[in-house]
Write a structure and sequence with these properties.
Elements (H helix, E strand, L loop, with lengths): L7 E6 L6 H9 L4 E6 L8 H16 L9 E4 L2 H5 L3 H15 L3 E3 H11 L4 E6 L3 H13 L3 E7 L13 H10 L9 E5 L7 H7 L6 E4 H12 L11 H12 L1
Parallel strand pairs: 1-2, 1-3, 3-4, 5-6, 5-7, 7-8
């Protein structure tokens, strides 16, 4: 498909997040043109205050795309939407969709859509977040009707920092957790749009046949589906093809 005629995906990104654009760009593999706007920098606010503010300023931030015609838009910040209930998240995204004339979904909402399409009702949660945000994430999934069977807390060195987790750290800590065997109704969810996951999933995927979900993978899957593009073609990214096999079967 010619670049000028490819569907357009708009992505809203936190200021210091370095993972979203390269991961979604690699996953879309030129099937969509990816355009981004960033949430404002909020000096002096702690993490929770920043996440709360992101929800408040989201309508105006989406307006930063101006007259650019989009085919789908993703809010690539799971943490801010974990502050909402799943129902509240969907209401907010529906309101934004109507206001901006484009389908809008949060990364959390995209994960939930992918999980349901794959017939998943149980999660093993891999989280690089601070404990309070990990608990908030688990509560969001439980409120959505999913059972969180286990939580694996991932550290970057000696601290919780999704932006700083290396591929080696992620692979080693997940393998050390000795995850349970394969189950058709269970997915391993790597939460956090700012944690680089693609290289780790390529390696960890050899250890398990379970559904593997990440914030950026699910967001890309949802965007392609929304734009009417298949995710399971031979030219698609291997992780998308793997997910598409389960969602088609479901």
């Amino acid at each position: 498909m010619a670049l000028h005629s490819a569907p357009r995906l708009g992505v809203v990104v936190p200021p210091a997040n370095a993972a979203v654009e390269p991961e979604i760009g690699e996953l879309t593999n030129s099937a969509m043109n990816v355009h981004t706007v960033r949430f404002p920098v909020l000096p002096g606010k702690d993490l929770r205050e920043r996440l709360e503010t992101y929800n408040e300023v989201l309508p105006g931030t989406l307006s930063g795309f101006g007259d650019l015609r989009l085919d789908a838009a993703v809010v690539a910040c799971t943490g801010s939407h974990y502050l909402l209930t799943p129902a509240g998240d969907r209401v907010l995204c529906d309101e934004l969709s109507q206001r901006h004339g484009v389908p809008v979904r949060s990364a959390a909402g995209a994960i939930l859509a992918a999980a349901r399409a794959a017939g998943v009702d149980r999660l093993v949660l891999i989280s690089p977040y601070q404990p309070w945000l990990t608990e908030l994430s688990a509560r969001y999934w439980q409120q959505a009707g999913l059972t969180v069977e286990r939580v694996v807390k991932v550290r970057a060195g000696d601290r919780f920092s999704p932006y700083d987790v290396t591929t080696e750290e992620l692979v080693a800590q997940v393998r050390a957790a000795d995850l349970p065997g394969d189950s058709d109704d269970t997915a391993v969810l790597f939460t956090g749009t700012g944690m680089f996951t693609l290289a780790a999933l390529a390696e960890l995927g050899r250890d398990t046949g379970q559904v593997l979900l990440t914030s950026n993978l699910a967001s890309t899957w949802w965007a392609l589906d929304t734009a009417g593009l298949p995710a399971g073609t031979p030219a698609a990214h291997p992780l998308l093809r793997r997910l598409a096999e389960r969602t088609v079967a479901a």
